[in-house]
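dumping this here before i forget
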Amino acid sequence: MLVVLVAGLGGGTGKAPSETTAVQATATSDHHDHMAAGCPPDLQVLDDGECTHGPDPAPPGLDPSRRVPPLTAAEADAAAAASEVVCAGPTGNRIQVVYVRYEGSPDNYAAYRDSFRAWAAGVDAIFHESAAETGGVRRALFVTSASTCEITVARHTIPGPAGDVTNKLKAQGLDRTDRKYLVFLDDDPFCGTAGVPQDEQPGHENRANRGPTFAYAGNGCWGSDVAAHEVLHTIGGVHTSAPHATPRGHCRDDHDRMCYRDAPDIPPLFQWCPQGHERLFDCNHDDYFSTAPAPGSYLATHWNTANSVFLDRGSQSSWAYVHAERPTTASYTPRADRRFNSSGATNTLTRSGVGAYRVRIPGMSAGGIPHATAYGSSPTHCTVHGWGPGGPGLDQLVDVRCFTPTGTPTDSQFTVGFVSPRNRFGSYANLWASQPSTPEYNPPIFNYNSTTTTPAVNRIQRAGVGVYLVWLPGLGPAAGGPSAGTAIATAAGTTTGWCRASGWGASGQDVVAVVTCRSAAGAPADTSFTFTYANQLSLLGLPGGRAAYVLADQETAASYTPDARRQYNSSGEVNTIRRTGVGSYTVVLPGLKDFAAGGEGNVQIGAEDQLRERCQVQAWSPFGDDIQVYVRCFTHTGAPTDAEFTLAFSS
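structure:
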């Protein structure tokens, strides 16, 4: 492949200079320093600890000594009209476009500003089209204007002489840890280069998820192709351990945006993808970029740039779950087969006091809805005390509180599921009912409905003390058909009580659900709650994966098959329920073990009727090809009792 990075910044004879001599102040080829910085021997160490590849040739048709002309007004207008860049605003993890010139040189900002925006939009398009090849969505998160949504192009002038650009820009404030910088550099005869974070671990903690890291395009190579190549380097590709990697951060399975022979001793390239793939990332999606890596594959076990926090997932939801199985341990990582994080990161637990826990979900700071269910054989109930972004701004923190039947804090196992939904398919809604004493309102935040992009469309009506009607517009036609779906509610806030979905069904074009909330003593109580409705989807709102739900409404029957309209199993088989004693049930979810892929999933439960019973997960486990879930139900005082309940399994 011939679309590549190029020499470093600055002139010279013989071997072209690298970023080391021009962009960064100092580099070393000392082997010890390479290893200390984590840079492979064929890469150079920058004085901020980053690595960079060596000098590269320019693509055909480009001359680093001749400035690329700006787009015409018509071309810039057409690019702006076609742009689908996310209106990401100025805050959060973003890619900042920067125009840089040296003092005393002509200022070409005005002549090129619209071209820079168009070329950046082209970078976004390359990410988008590459993600689509594996069925996903990725968009580059550029800094955009909060008012116009246009890509913001910063403007900087640095002192001469040429060279040491990165440190000069850092001295002017381009040093944010939530930034990757795409620099269009004027007046320097080079083509492109970038820092490459050397961290192969999967998940949010990867070094590539932090800045500042700089991608440079010289004025002889201004355009989308070189810029996309350099930006990909800054988010962590290509690692030298990848199946088809070169020693200098590129790849050999062409045609591919990142592949070319970057040294004379590199074997010839494999021509595995068609010429038309030349502008896109990762031929066969097995080296550095895939939105759907196969379990156990290289990208499932190493850093995958598609998981970068500097990329938006578009219509893809983010989700996570845990089983908190060690209730008295101060901090720990839950068992691997009962935790999951769609960002690839590892969820952790901390205990801050009796019955007080924090679930940390890295890489998932976007708003969403959590649910919590007590786990074990002793009567306990757990609530979502609060949730929101925390830590470095990339984590979701979910605080859980667990109580005895009298409302006394107690240490307990529990399960948590969290979803930040974006999918616009199927019948799915969730919300936070945050105003428990308000007669009627649209929840202002965390209010999602899969049938519309209208904000805050779902509605809450208070029908009495602790009794609420949840209206979900547009979901009625599906619920009025062969499947009525399922619903779960979890008490939220400082309450020691509990909430549950007591019934739901179609009402014209809408679904309406009844949620009842009670104090620990069993009295009706106005309470904040989280709520989720799903119809032939998992409780996480996902169309794929393993999922099942049931409404167990025959509490005294020895064994039965739940109402077909109110049960679902993604395997296509039929769920069944057995009563094994007073308040004790076994729910059999057949066929789901066949799709386990190494994990045991997550279970959420709620009592369904309007009395004062509570139900919880006693345990669940694979059994043959099935998943079996054991459920216990109690009165509000803690005595075993037969009760109706809802159960949802997700993985």
